[in-house]
Structures are given as structure tokens and as C-alpha cells.
Amino acid sequence: MRSIWLRHKLSNFNSRLKALERKVAGQGGILTEAQVQALEKKKHDDEACGEIETAHPGYLGSQDTFYGGTLKGVERLYQQSYIDTYAKVAQAKLFAACSYQNV
Fold first, then answer.
1. Quick check: 76 and 96 in contact, CB under 8 A?
2. Dist. CA 18–CA 39, nearest whole Å
3. What is the pLDDT of residue 103?
4. N or C: lower Cβ tally within 10 Å for the chain?
5. What are phi and psi of 92, to 5 degrees?
6. Are 78 and 52 in contact (CB under 8 A)?
7. What is the pLDDT of residues 25-81, one digit of tens each?
């Protein structure tokens, strides 16, 4: 059975539920009570875990700046991070804070 699931890219429970949703949406049909409960539980779990559906890359991203500490001769270091929620690709930039002194 597992080899069939792997062949059709249905190796985990979530992927099987997504395939079931697509099939019902495309072909129609009636779900059993257990299937309806599983789909509702999956939707609730996705919301609780903060999973967000996005339409395309760049649609929604998460950005944060983190203070990393100080280095001798460089002063304060910061890391700025950006994560694309569709592609799940992260980018980070490390930079030093500039301190300007009035002359």
C-alpha cells in the first residue's frame, strides 16, 4: 500500500487529505462523517500552527530584524531576515550599525 501512496505522492496523511479535498471539489461527491471530521481537524490544526495559504511567490512574506551582539571594531551587528510564505525560501542579511559622531 505504501508504494502506491508514494507513487501518487500521497505518503503522509495531510497530502491524502489535500488530495481528497481536490477530488471532491473537482468531481463532487459525498464525504463520510469520518472524512468530514478529518478535514475539519486538519483545517483547525493548520490555523493553530499558523499555516497560511498564499497565491504566488511574493504574495506574503515575514520579516524580522534581530540584534546579534557586538564585535570588537565592528560595533553592533544586526540580522535582517525575510521568509516568502509561498515558496518557503528564507533570505538573511547581516549588517553592522553605523555610528555617526558629530564633528
1. yes
2. 9
3. 44
4. C
5. -135, 145
6. no
7. 888 777 788 888 888 887 777 665 666 777 888 888 889 998 988 888 778 889 999
Check residue 100 and report its DSSP letter: -
CA distances from 6 to 12, 18, 20 (A): 9, 15, 16
* CA distance linking residue 96 with residue 46, whole number of Å: 37
Round to the nearest angstrom and report the end-to-end CA distance of the chain. 75
For residue 39, give the amino acid letter.
L
Cα gap 83→69, rounded to integer Å: 22
Task: Report yes or no on whether pTM surpasses 0.85.
Answer: no
* E strand residue ranges, the chain: 61-71, 75-84, 89-96
Angle of CA points 58, 60, 66, to nearest 5°: 100
CA distances from 40 to 15, 26, 33, 85 (A): 15, 19, 11, 23
Give yes or no for residue 102 having a pLDDT over 60: no
